[in-house]
């Protein structure tokens, strides 16, 4: 007689893994981002901008750039179909939701409407090093003003906001240009066809990578790259190519000098003259607000998003020296940008509504600062850890933790079941500045032992004069229980 087959099977367990392009972030990274958002939010509110939070989902047709062109409109976005058969998508940026909100609530809003927003956005794109499908953005926009001074205010506020986020003067510059200047160049070059316009814009956008000679080829018949691939050019004649190159050849300098140089190139065209007038008013307003040329300069080579923007455009470029994780120099480039977009709200209302704004990636700025050797999280540390020796003394441990918290000091009682050595290792992994040790003898004597973990880390990094450190701040001290908070406070203050 055979025994029945064994029907027991191992349970199917999913592999613990994060989706591609998404990341888990712990305390230090979150502290860095929150500090930047808080600092920038304080600047924006001081300038009179109110916070606005829109939902993570928008109807897919409200996203504009990603209108459904197939059964499933998921090109570039994460979309799903609601129970009423309408497609919804996670927001791709914070501007499209603003346009929808402004159109939906325009009658009730103060005009112009000044708002800032921050939060995660999602992009269904191929992930790569430093390129994620979910990241945090921070935006500020003015909707309802066509004054160039509104652009200037956004630029000046961006300068102050980036400095509040951790960039000192001279470590970033806002480069300013205008779609209308480019339109003037296109007029001077005789370009009227949309496809040729886009080809010119794409060629100009490659100036940093290919240089003037490479751009010249792309403005003409085309360019053969090192791999043998041929890129078809814009097909401009010699006069047209020369007009675009003359525009790009304008040298950097003060805002006034650049405007004068540009006037010689595009001032004779209707669009160019209009763009120069607007940039002149922006420059005058920046001067009145005390924004130096070095902090915000006019640079005609900025062509970011010119298919989207209708007037002034601006791009924040990092000037800090940055390195990769192997210490090799890297160019970080743009850390934010914006401009005037007067057509976005009109998608909903049919009426042109002027708007201008600036956006930066919070996560990207954190990465940029770290690549420059700065830590946006600053002196962020973990809580003071109260070592737990005995079940019978838990009340004493919790009383000590409560006392520290009452004084504004983060503290926790160890609630695992490990021994002393493992608890100290736990405290170190938490980044605790100190560990509080209260054995039975210490409690009976009204004493407490405090181990300075900050000092231990400092010594581990081979401080130049260890003896001086030990004499100034001993690594472990036995103090009166009444002096617990004062002693821990001294450790925290010394570590700042």
TrEMBL record:
Residues 12-26 have a biased composition (Basic and acidic residues). It is found in: Cytoplasm. GO terms for cellular component: cytoplasm. Residues 1-10 have a biased composition (Polar residues). It holds the Pfam family HGTP_anticodon. Keywords: Aminoacyl-tRNA synthetase, ATP-binding, Cytoplasm, Ligase, Nucleotide-binding, Protein biosynthesis. L-histidine binds at residues 93-95, 123, 137, 141, 304, 308-309. PROSITE patterns: AA_TRNA_LIGASE_II. The keyword Cytoplasm applies. Its EC number is 6.1.1.21. It comes from the Bacteria. Gene3D superfamilies: Anticodon-binding domain (3.40.50.800), Bira Bifunctional Protein, Domain 2 (3.30.930.10). InterPro entries: aa-tRNA-synth_II, aa-tRNA-synth_II/BPL/LPL, Anticodon-bd, Anticodon-bd_dom_sf, His-tRNA-ligase, HisRS-like_core, HisRS/HisZ, HisRS_anticodon. It catalyses: tRNA(His) + L-histidine + ATP = L-histidyl-tRNA(His) + AMP + diphosphate + H(+). SUPFAM superfamilies: Class II aaRS ABD-related, Class II aaRS and biotin synthetases. Residues 1-26 are annotated as: Disordered. One of its GO terms (biological process) is histidyl-tRNA aminoacylation. The keyword Ligase applies. Homodimer. Belongs to the class-II aminoacyl-tRNA synthetase family. PANTHER family: HISTIDINE--TRNA LIGASE, HISTIDYL-TRNA SYNTHETASE. This is Histidine--tRNA ligase. The lineage of its organism: Bacteria, Pseudomonadati, Pseudomonadota, Alphaproteobacteria, Caulobacterales.
């Amino acid at each position: 007689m055979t025994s029945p087959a064994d029907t027991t099977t191992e349970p199917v367990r999913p592999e613990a893994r994060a989706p591609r392009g998404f990341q888990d972030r712990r305390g230090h990274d979150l502290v860095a981002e929150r500090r930047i958002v808080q600092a920038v939010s304080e600047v924006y509110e001081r300038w009179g901008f109110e916070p606005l939070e829109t939902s993570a989902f928008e109807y897919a047709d409200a996203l504009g750039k990603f209108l459904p062109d197939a059964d499933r409109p998921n090109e570039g976005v994460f979309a799903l179909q609601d129970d009423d058969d309408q497609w919804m998508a996670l927001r791709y940026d914070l501007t499209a939701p603003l346009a929808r909100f402004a159109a939906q609530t325009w009658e009730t809003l103060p005009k112009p409407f000044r708002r800032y927003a921050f939060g995660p956005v999602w992009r269904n794109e191929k992930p790569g090093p430093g390129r994620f499908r979910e990241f945090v953005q921070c935006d500020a926009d003015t909707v309802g003003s066509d004054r160039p001074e509104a652009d200037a205010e956004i630029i000046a506020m961006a300068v102050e906001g980036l400095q509040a986020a951790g960039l000192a003067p001279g470590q970033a510059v806002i480069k300013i240009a205008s779609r209308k200047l480019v339109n003037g160049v296109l007029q001077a070059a005789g370009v009227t066809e949309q496809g040729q316009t886009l080809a010119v814009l794409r060629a100009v956008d490659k100036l940093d990578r290919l240089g003037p000679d490479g751009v010249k080829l792309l403005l003409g018949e085309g360019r053969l790259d090192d791999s043998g691939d041929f890129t078809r050019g814009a097909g401009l004649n010699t006069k047209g190519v020369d007009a675009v190159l003359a525009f790009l050849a304008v040298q950097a300098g003060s805002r006034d000098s650049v405007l004068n140089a540009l006037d010689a190139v595009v001032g004779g065209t209707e669009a160019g003259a209009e763009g120069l007038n607007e940039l002149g008013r922006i420059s005058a307003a920046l001067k009145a607000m005390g924004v130096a040329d070095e902090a915000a300069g006019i640079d005609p080579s900025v062509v970011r998003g010119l298919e989207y923007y209708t007037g002034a455009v601006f791009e924040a470029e990092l000037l800090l020296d940055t390195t990769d994780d192997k210490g090799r120099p890297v160019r970080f480039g743009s850390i934010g940008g914006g401009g005037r977009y007067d057509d976005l709200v009109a998608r909903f209302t049919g009426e042109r509504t002027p708007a201008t704004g600036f956006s930066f990636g919070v996560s990207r700025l954190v990465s940029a600062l770290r690549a420059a050797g700065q830590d946006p999280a600053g002196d962020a540390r973990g809580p003071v850890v109260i070592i737990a020796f005995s079940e019978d003394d838990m009340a004493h441990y919790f009383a000590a933790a409560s006392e520290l918290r009452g004084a504004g000091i983060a503290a926790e009682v160890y609630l695992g079941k490990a021994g002393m050595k493992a608890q100290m290792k736990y405290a170190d992994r938490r980044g605790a500045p100190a560990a509080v040790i209260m054995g039975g003898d210490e409690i009976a004597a009204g004493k407490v032992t405090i181990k300075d973990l900050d000092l231990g880390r400092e010594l581990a990094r081979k401080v130049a004069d260890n003896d001086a450190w030990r004499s100034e701040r001993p690594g472990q001290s036995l103090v009166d229980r009444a002096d617990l908070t004062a002693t821990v406070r001294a450790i925290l203050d010394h570590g700042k």
